[in-house]
Sequence to fold (392 residues):
Amino acid sequence: MKSKRVLSIDVMRGLTLFLMLFVNDLYVPGVPVWLAHRPADFDGMGLADWVFPGFLFMVGMAVPFAIKNRMKRGDSNLRIIYHIIVRTISLLVIGVLMMNIGRLNPDLTGLPKNLWAIFTYLAIFIIWNEYPERQKKLAVILKSTGVIALLFLVAIFRSGTPDDTTWLTTGWWGILGLIGWGYLVTSLTYLWLKNNIPYTGLVLLFFIVLNALSMLGLLHFLDFIKPVFGVIIDGNVPSIVLAGLFFSLVLQRLKTNPRRFLLTATIIGIGALLLGFVLRNWFIISKIQGTPSWAMICNGISVLLFVLLFILIDIEGKVKWTGIFKMAGQNSLTTYLAPDVFYYSIWLSGVPILFYKNSEYSLIIIIGSLVWSAVMVLFANVLTRWGIRLKL
Fold:
């Protein structure tokens, strides 16, 4: 390897994020089914069904590096736990807000849906932006303003009908909420077990079994806490993030011996794929249902893709093509959220910027979504240069 830093981690995280933007923009009629999400009762998966678990896997891979950095700075375990909880709550809050936008009733709320969404995202950027140390007073003023604005937007939110008005709901917690629950379980696991690979594997196995038991309907006795802790009890999301942690520990143990790591990683990747197809005898491959067979197949794909990137980037040193993915991987939250501000602004204005979605040709739709994703990554990079970067 040419560098002590494993660059393929940043690149793969950025690649999965880029593909998340791509499939989110792409999900329209007229594109090949293998690119899109498959229905809940369909036994199989498309590219879109791997992208999110691929990102979850990379969240798990990053956990030990982030916690070790905090330890090197002198943070105590209590301080790290505090950070983990705050970060989890932040992800849950943003995830729930994003998820509820589609439920908003503009007549009951007093604001058009797109306008409420834009104001909400702006408040999120103001609150969670990383301000320079020299601007502490300004940061306090801006963050306080953002909190007041967000509380107001939350207070006026209404959904349903005049006869049956409802407020925000946690529902399935949204994409960022799912990441938050998986991050919580995985971070606490690492803080508890540190670099112990066998014990981390046992925790991973526990959540795979939990996922299977949940799918078989054997965990109904826990229904009373599922409204809050359902993602953890279901086991699916935590098992994917924990798989990333487990693999990251293997990487750190063996990265000084690349040949041995590649052999071990390939065995792990193929083993995960085989386990997924074995589990298919009892559980269909379904992202929407969150089956253990789907999770294991996705983990296998993630491992084998990482092996390929590791060879190209960290062993062969072929890094010229990685620029846009490194940008996305190093500024993931800003890159993921910034496009939504554009979406709601475009829908509010009615300007047909996303004209390619109306094309009768699949290739034009696909190229349009790829260009859109690339532009959004570059825009997030520009925001970072302007001092706008979300950090939880």
About this structure: The radius of gyration is 21 Å.
